[in-house]
Amino acid sequence: MIMLSTNQYRAHCIDLEGLDGCESIRRAYYNLGNLIISLELKNQSDIINILDRYWPSTIIYQLAKSNENNQIKISWPNYLVQPALIIYIYVDEIEQEKQLVTQEEFHRRLDFIYRNHIPSSHLHVIDGNRPINIIANDILNLFQE
């Protein structure tokens, strides 16, 4: 049996749905995405493109999380294509709750499909509602079996 203590080094995985990794990894991920999109936009200048995420949402989110009350100065990076139009869609808390319910339904369906359609000889279900070091130990112990 392998045991990890809480102070041992462990790599944190990134949940691409919510990017729960460390701040530097999230920033690098979003910046790389912005760069890739910008290169694509340069090649499609005659086409209308609608993006859910691009540099403005990345930088605004980072600034909102920083809780700094300093005067905010935003200047567009010269290596990214600037859009002709930026639209911010405000969603109130009631609508956010509706969307969360939809996400919960999706996750229940995802769980059902995993548990019922992946061959049981390959599938190992691990309770993710426990401390990370216990989850990591459970995963490492699967390799011992």
UniProtKB/TrEMBL annotation:
InterPro entries: P-loop_NTPase. It comes from the Eukaryota. This is NadR/Ttd14 AAA domain-containing protein. It comes from Rotaria sordida. The lineage of its organism: Eukaryota, Metazoa, Spiralia, Gnathifera, Rotifera.
